[in-house]
Every structure is written in structure tokens, then in C-alpha cells.
Amino acid sequence: MHKPFVVPEGVVFLVEDDGVTIENQGDVVLHTDFGGRLLKRIVSHHGNVELHGRVRAGTLQAGGSLRCGGTASAESVHADRDIEVAGDAVFGSVHGGGSVHVAGSAQLGRATAAGSIAIDGALKSGALECGGLVVGGDAALGSVSAANGITLLGSTTAVTLRGNEIDLRGPSVTARGVQGARRVSIGGAKLSVDAILAPEVHLDGKTSGRVTVIESNNELGPNAVKGCFRLTDYAEMVGDTSVFLADRGLVALGAAMALPAEAAVDHDHASGAAVSTNDAGAPAEEPPAPAAHAEPADDADAEPAAAAAGEAHAEPEPTAEPEAAAQVESTPDVVEVVEDEPGGTAEAMANDPASGPAVVVVAPPSPKAVSMQDADPLAGAAEHPMHAQLAETVQKIVDCYANQELPLAVEKLRDLVAGRKYTEVRAEITNIWSELLKFHQKKGMRIAHQVTNTFNSVNSMVKKM
Fold first, then answer.
1. d(Cα 167, Cα 151) in Å, to the nearest integer?
2. For 106-116, what is each residue's pLDDT tens digit?
3. pTM for the whole thing?
């Protein structure tokens, strides 16, 4: 028996060439994909949105919770309560008043959630501000600020990780900064990190790699990590460390660290209209390429490893905790669209293994994944237009050692630039800086401010080439 198609009073229902628009005060439940058309705008002002099967959308907005029964892609997702995706998700911007759970992998632009964000598979994202973060697979992230814990079980690449307790359990961790208000624990990973700060820092004995600065109140114990300067020791070599910390979104131990108590949700109940803090399709912050432990400021900020289109944004200022809004009762009317041809429902398609988990990107496209192993744009360059300026700046560093032993690190930098090996310069710049610091430490010499400032200029030029 065919189900009736009922459109309650006050509902906006448009099926146009460029997509489908449905707006309702109460719940919206869809069991059809409208023949593969884009769901241009699906809105429940005071109720839930429930979508079965594959979802290809522009804007999804729910005054209550939002649930996608299969895979989903959308430019903008906004729910005053929880967001759940049964399969994989590709979302441009996400605003959740509750928790966000994706049963598969996820690719997010900028995301805020008052509750936790839990991804069972891998995650690629821009900036995240949430109650907590748990990722079961590999993670390529922008800056993450969590009120509670951050648990990452796969390989991690991030700009900055900030939370109450941070647990990193994958085989590798690459980040500019990691800070826990209470504790940071890393288990047996290979590290490439600028700074780790927390009252308690615990490194598994098998942890290796390099961390420029580790600041904690406890002893680290045996490990194979190189660097590990205390801030006071690092300051003796480079001077004031406040800029070093600020550039990485970190604060000294004992200073107040702002973490989100609750993510901001911009929803005007009086008008029933969602106010998006990010325009649909706006570029999201991108996670960095490994920029491990260079003290010089990185004017180009993080380089893309995997994120939405566009350049990386600076880390957002923490949003203030919003006042609790009065709960609006859901209206009883429901829009439920059902495709009742035998065997032709979107729900049946979702249950058909042959349909596969592929996500179709909407137009304009949702964030597109970029492989972390993509070719370097400098590869194969003969001579960059900025070569003369770069060579001249490096020579200024060489000149600072005119009357003393030339550090091997400086000699290496000079030779790479002279050989037009721009790709290697950019890949090795942070290691060269670390080697230079160790040279001065062994010699008991304070590094000259002119060297630090000029190295900053080299670093900036390389990132812009």
C-alpha cells in the first residue's frame, strides 16, 4: 500500500532544476534522494532532520538533532543538538549544539560542537572547537581546542592541540604545539613537534623523534626523543620565548589557558533563521605539513596537508560560553517524503552493498582531500625569482660567523641555497635551525639576535616561495 504524501501548512517545498528546498517548523524526514538531485536547503526550525540513504546537500539545518542514515556530503551543517552520520561524512562547516558522531571517516572544514566530536575512522579537518575529540584512525587537523580530552589513536598531523588531557597513541605525531591543562601522554610515537607543555607530560620509553621544548613539572624518564629543552634553557639561547609560544597558540605553565567551555551556536529562535558564522563554502583552516621545531616565526603559517580549499586561517579566538537559550518545543507537524516505487527507495539503496560508500561532492564542492604526500610545488624548479634575495639573506647569516668557526648547519643551508635545491631547503629548514641551536649549546655561546632575526627572514622567504 502506497503511503500518502502529506505537506503540512506553512511548509516550503520546492523541487527545482538546481536542487530541492524543504523548510518546516517541525521534523523533516526524507526517505528519498529525489532522483539524485542536490538537497539545496533542508531546514527544520524547531525539530529534527532525518535523512536516509546517501545525502548530497547544500545546507542542512535542524533546531533539534540531525541524523544521516548513510554517507553524507554538505556545504554547511547546523544542529542545535546532536549530529549523527551512519557512514562517511564530507562537510564544509559544522555547528553542533550537542555531540557529533561519524561512524566512518570524516572530512570537515571548520567545526564547533558543545559536546564531543567522535570519528570512528580517519579525520581530516580545519579548526575544531569542541567539548572533546576522539578519532579512531589517522588525523590531519588544523588547530584543535577541546574543553575536556583529546584522544587520537592513529598517526596525527596538526597545527596545535589544546585540551584538558591529551592522549596520542598513534605511530607518529607532527604538530607545532601540544598543550594540556592537566596532562599530555604520548605512547611510543615518532615525534616532530615544536613544543609540548603540561603540568604532567608522560612519554612512553619507545617514544622517539624530536621535540624542541618540553615543559612539565615532572621528570620525563628514559626516552629516545631529541631536543627536549626546558623553556628556561631555550630562552638562554634565543632570548624571550613568549613569541615562540604565542606563534603556536600556547601559554607558559601557570598562565590561564583559554579552553572552550561550550561551543558557540548561532541560532535565532525568534526568527527561526540560522546565522552561520562561516559562509557556505568558506575556506577552512588547513592542517600543516610537518613544521616540526623551528623557533623562527612562520609567516606563511601552516602548510596544507589535508583540508578544504583555500589558505589556512589563524587559530580562532575562543568563543565565550553563550547564555542558555530557552528550549523551544517542537511543533507536531512532520514533513515525511517517501519514494514508494518497489525497490526504488533511497533507503534500499543505502542497504545495497553494491551502491558503495562513495560520497558525491556538492557544487560548489565541499572540502576536497589533498594527499599529505602530494608533490612539492618547488620540485624541479631551476631558479626561483626570489633566489637572489634568499642567497643574500643566507650570506648575512654566514657573515655573522666571519671571525669564528662556521657552524655546519649554516654551511649546509648556504650550500643548499647555492645549489638551487629549494625543495630540500624547505624540508630541512627546521632541522637546520635545531642543529644550529645545538652547536651554540655545545660551545656555550648565546646565539646572536642578528642570526635569529635573519634566520626568521630565511624561513619566511622559503615558505612563500
1. 5
2. 999 999 999 99
3. 0.60
